[in-house]
Amino acid sequence: MARNILKEVEAQALALATNRTGSEMLQELLGFSPLKPLCRVWTALRPNLRFVACHRCGVHVLQSALLQLPRLLRRPAGADEEEEEEEDGPSQTLEELVLGLAAEVRDDFLFFCGDTHGSFLVRTLLQVLGGTLLESERVKPRGSQSSESQRTSARECKPTEFEVPKTFLNRLQDLSTCFLKDIAVFITDKISSFCLQVALQVLHHKLPQHCARLCDAVIDYLSSRSSSAGGSPLLLFLRDQTSSRLLEQVLLVLEPERLQRLFKDHFQGQLDSLAEHPIANFPLQRLLDAVTSPELLSLVFEELSPALEAVLARGHPGVVVALVEACRRVGTHQAQVLQLLFEAFHCAEPPSRQVACVPLFASLLAYEVYYELMEEEGAEPAEHQVEMATTRALREVTVLGSLLLQHLLYFSNPGLVLRSLSALTGPQLVTLAQSPAGSHVFDAILTSPSVTHKQRRRVLKTLKGQYVALACSRHGSRVLDAIWSGAALGARKEIAAELGEKNQELIQDPFGHHVARNVALTTFLKRPGAWEQQQSTVAKRRRALSSILED
């Protein structure tokens, strides 16, 4: 169907591509298109490349065509021979069309990179030439991504790689030299900077030497500007919205030795001011994301650790979460950073307050704020009141608070955090599980190698009597499924028995009926012997698979 429709609209390809509805239709069709129809549409648009690439609708058609390459390059030779032979094929192959597009873009590189819509084409072209599709750059034709949504750790964005001809990598190398010719523009212009950021990520995976050349060019240019008061000239650009985004990417792709040299030359002695700055705190987070050596982490930790409470007070918890993640990843300073968190959230002294750390970390609120206490300045902190804590509903769990708890649970000794989790009441744990962010804390409890079976069981036993509430919740049901997957036969019997008392309620609930099916609740209620045998068989298979994977 796609082949026939594209054949009919080929003559009107330009008009359709630059029409909102027509553009959306072409994007959908190209996603299913065989090779030859796609090449014919591409050929029809090529004489008007500049117009189409800089059109708000047309550029997405070109992007969609480029993004078919991973699919079409995998096709065996002659796969399209069954297509209508009476029709003349396109005069150029797909590889030639891509290389031709890259040549035209190269000849007017600054124009395409600096155009609001044309830059989308350049960024997609760079990914295709490098055989690396970035998660953060996935095309969303119905609406562009917000810039803030892209500000995530590169470790969370796994690129999709595919094989490309050597000619593609050669052309990618050519385009990388275009950035060097006008490096000042790509550092200071907001739109053009996005193209350089994508180039750094793609080159990091496929041509690391060229990535290092671009990084050096960026750092050398910024370092050559006029010095800021009392520090490196780079500090001025860390506080600028456009260049700071570029520096974030540079930090993530630098080799460890270059990263350590950059830290000593430009960052050391300035971390406190960077952490408290509304823009510069983001490049600092990326620096922490990139740390892999104990030596560099020790330098950063020594300078940043005394300022954790001030950083939280400024509303920049991302810096604290990034530091905790670095301690988890490198495996050092874990006990120290946990003690500093206790002090920052005012639950270090008296020691009885430490049991309240999970609600405080999850909500990112200090002890007095969370429990609404009025303490005079200089007065001794009051002891923790268990009755007050157990009767209070859990406050809203923040995304960064959830991430903080997840990292802490992966520390080599998460005992204090687990003790706090065990002190929560059943309803409080249910609130945590039903939270979109808080539900992921249970993922860490269930999967962290640092959490022993005994510790895990101590936390989860509090949920007894709350399974129906979990099952009838969007996020709680996912937590219950995860608990069920790792539960022994005895625990599964307890869960099924409790759910069986509310079988009708579960069946009628949009989330509960999935849990009932997963648990095989009908079989449990009507044929308990057969259910037990079935569960034993599943457990044996799981153990066998685990032993194979371990080997």
TrEMBL record:
Domain of life: Eukaryota
Pfam families per UniProt: PUF_NOP9 (PF22493)
InterPro entries, sorted: ARM-like (IPR011989), ARM-type_fold (IPR016024), NOP9 (IPR040000), Pumilio_RNA-bd_rpt (IPR001313)
Keywords: Repeat
Keyword Transmembrane helix: no
Protein name in UniProt: Nucleolar protein 9
Species, as recorded: Apodemus speciosus (Large Japanese field mouse)
Source taxonomy: Eukaryota, Metazoa, Chordata, Craniata, Vertebrata
